[in-house]
Structure prediction request, 465 residues.
Amino acid sequence: MASLWGGRFEKDMDDIVKKYNASIFFDQRMYNEDINGSIAHVTMLGKQGIVSNEEKDQIIAGLETIRKDIAEGKIVFTVEDEDIHMGIESRLIERIGDVGKKLHTSRSRNDQCQVDTRLYLRKEVYEILNSLCYLENVILEKAEKYADQITVGFTHLQHAQPITIGFVFMAYFQMFKRDIERLSDALKRLNYNPLGACALAGTTMPIDRHLTSELLHFTAPTENAMDAVSDRDYSLEFLSDASISMMHLSRWAEEFAWWNSSEFSYIAIDDSFCTGSSIMPQKKNPDIAELVRGKTGRVYGALMSILTTMKGIPLGTALAYNKDFQEDKESVFDAIDTWKATIDIFAKMLDKTEFRMDQIEKQLGKGFLNATDIAEHFAKQGIPFREAHSIVGHMVKACENKGCDFEDLTDEDLQAIDKRVTKELLGDISIKTCVNARVSFGGTAPSEVRRQIEVGRQWLNSLER
Prediction:
């Protein structure tokens, strides 16, 4: 197959160079976007009188037959195609003849690959947003189910304060809410049309970039042609958003691995999301959670890859496009696939995971979880908080020496610590009472968790409308 750009060359590319240079094996996934961009482009060329209406119709019909054949697996791309742009255009020329050669008027692969990537990424962003919304729905359902169920809150991997499981779920809800907001905001900068920027400086032809923007549902054309073909900020922003979201998933996956361990036994993950051991018959491994942690590194790597590529690309005279830019897609595609799959499988695993309250309740009496609540209770009685903090610290030490809980301390024990403290002053310090009292805005009390759930549901419903 003769190259469409080889007019000034006397030799064909070496086979090893063709293979190294080609991107067709990964960018062919953008064939729909490439054809859509070409149809919009030739529609504009027709309206502007740059091609005739008959030529425009021929080109569009030819592109649609190619689209159909690709979808049906009748076209197999090879290294000779080089990339999806050349692969489609060369077949168009084979099918409709010289008219097909007019399609590339007033555009370059520089702006063509940019419009393809933006269209493809925009489509994938909408799918990822839908997946994140599904995950948020699962979280809200679980938060409602466990709004009253108490578990151990940790700091420094030590028992800290009692919290509700619904409260934990709503903490993660906020993380993924920010992921949705970030990604939605990134769409605003992604959705600009580079088509017609050509190689780097625009064109002398009377094109209408506003029309192609309208046809392709872009907000507007990009303002500067040089920036349009050299910009990869939208990919970097997407990968940054993906990395943050994968980090959120990884954090929760880490907790799944802990909670599933024999030492915790807080959760029962459905068998369909676990694996066994090839040698130890008793094992039920949280492999999906562990894979989520591992795959997070792939997305981080994609971000670092493109950041590293872009840091060495100057923007100056005739340097707006370099072949380095070809490295912008494969990492993005891998990150898209990884992020989407991870959200979907995590949401399903979460839906099929239940908390083992019998095991959790065994832990609630350990670690003096109600210590902070007692200090706050003393502060309400007029004891300065720092003094109350010290009193409760001495109470903890007394309990450790006696091998008992706060409730077991006698008036004599308490008076020895501070004359102001009595059993009567101590009042009801049960774990449930402490949790129910934490009604401050954003707190862990069941009533407050339910308020958070309702606010979250309203926000999510507003997106889905």
Observations:
- DSSP finds 19 helices and six strands in the chain.
